[in-house]
Amino acid sequence: MSFxxxxxxxxxxxxxxxxxxxxxxxxxTNALGYPPEIxxxxxxxxxxxxxxxxxxxxxxxxxxxxxxxxNKGKGAALRFGIEKAxxxxxxxxxxxxxxxxxxFLKIWEALKYNDIVIGIKDDKYYQHVPKARVVIxxxxxxxxxxxxxxxxxxxxxxxxxxxxxxxxxxxQTTINRYLCDxxxxxxxxxxxxxxxxxxxxxxxxxxxxxxxxxxxxLMTELSxxxxxxxxxxx
Length: 234
Fold this sequence. Notes:
By secondary structure, this protein is of the alpha/beta class. Helix content is 44%, strand content 18%. The chain starts with a strand and ends with a helix. The relative contact order is 0.16.
């Protein structure tokens, strides 16, 4: 049996975030038949409350919280956690587990036959997403298809899994914020190591809420996107 590690980056999480983690991870534990390793990475911001951490540790037998003081971004937090993970297989997602448990397990099942599994949004995804996010997401996908020519253009879906070979690729990423997902997928398809990469359509939970997009972060991500384009052209 392949042991699983789950990596969850967290930055100023919403109220009762730990309850979502406990419920999702307990459902995953029941499906797997054993408790996966759960690594919660605090990406700076406000300190996680002692009550929240205690609830996680008491409810989930193989969970621990780690992190650092100053916010660096999703990419940095993921590398921090992935580097510490002990599992033969790794899956990362967002702290609120925005996708259904069935979607998570779909990624897990696909990892039995692949090195890297990329979650992509299903047909109903955009029905539940604010219009601004829809425009940004679809525009990015068009640019990826046009400029990077990758088999998968939906790179920003926050649910991905990989084995130790994929772990090596992820730890080669350098982008600290959200486009680490794009950089990772780009490096996967660029790799000459014969990795087996596949994608699986996954479903958004019906009760997910989205935070407002920060214009300053969008400008940073534009710079990160250009850096990947320049790397491809080099």
